[in-house]
Design goal:
Blueprint lengths: L1 E6 L2 E6 L3 E6 L7 E4 L5 E2 L7 E4 L4 E6 L3 E8 L1 H6 L11 E3 L3 H13 L6 H18 L11 H13 L7 H8 L3 H12 L3 H19 L4 H7 L5 H12 L3 H6 L1
Antiparallel strand pairs: 1-8, 2-7, 3-6, 3-8, 4-5, 4-7, 6-9
Helix pairs in contact: 2-3, 4-5, 7-9
Length: about 250
């Protein structure tokens, strides 16, 4: 979905099977582009600018200096999750990129090589939802969820707190699409599912630290952390002290 590139001067023809976002990381004053034809037009782009092109777009892109850029392709299924199913109807955008979209794009590329996780799922949905809002402000509506569905999701989190939870699995317990689940969950609990899971893990860890003599590494494993240093950072952010200090305090 998300990649970064460093390419020499040149360019060439392109065909995009999915709606895509490109973000230039260096200035390209001699950039030229043609979308849907071979008639190139000069569109100078500065670092932080770029393009949003619909699914099925084709054309030519040329530049006279080495280019560093990010590219994100948003599959139809991801856009459907946020209620935006007309990706082919989105008009091309070439030039200024919304700052929040640019920031989300950078985060998506930074986490692209990491294993699938609740955090990465949440970031992908946030990016798709914001893009849908930019291209069609009324496309990504809200959906209400009754408390019983959310409580099923919460129970699933509690029962699987030590597992590698995914947003898809949690939302499936509530029988709500991932995007609508995130919105309903935030409305009900005042936080995202990702932050909720972290908080519950830290609360569970605190109980284990105070009531058992388990090594910190074992406590971390029992609340879903194979990386003890990452667990320590999250715990300190949550409790204000290290796990060891919390245990003896």
């Amino acid at each position: 979905m998300a990649e970064s590139f460093d390419v020499p001067p040149g360019g060439g023809a392109f065909v995009l099977p999915h709606l895509a976002v490109g973000l230039f990381l260096n200035d390209q004053p001699d950039h030229r582009i043609a979308v849907g034809s071979d008639r190139r037009r000069p569109v100078p782009l500065a670092a932080g600018e770029g393009w949003i092109l619909p699914a099925g777009a084709s054309g030519i892109c040329e530049y006279d200096a080495p280019l560093s850029y990010l590219k994100l392709a948003l599959p139809t299924a991801l856009l459907a999750d946020v209620g935006f199913e007309r990706a082919r109807d989105a008009g091309p955008v070439v030039g200024r990129i919304d700052p929040l979209l640019a920031g989300l794009a950078r985060q998506a590329v930074a986490s692209a090589k990491e294993p699938a996780s609740l955090y990465r799922d949440t970031m992908e949905l946030a990016l798709a939802a914001h893009l849908a809002h930019l291209l069609s402000p009324r496309a990504a509506g809200t959906a209400a969820a009754d408390d019983r569905r959310l409580q099923r999701a919460v129970a699933y989190i509690q029962d699987n707190i030590a597992e590698d939870l995914s947003l898809e699995e949690i939302a499936a317990e509530a029988a709500i699409s991932r995007f609508h689940f995130v919105r309903a969950f935030r409305n009900a609990f005042g936080t995202s599912p990702y932050q909720y899971v972290i908080r519950e893990r830290m609360e569970r860890a605190g109980i284990l630290l105070k009531t058992t003599r388990l090594p910190v590494a074992e406590v971390a494993a029992r609340v879903g952390y194979g990386d003890v240093s990452r667990f320590g950072r999250h715990f300190r952010r949550h409790a204000g002290v290290t796990p060891a200090a919390f245990r003896t305090g």
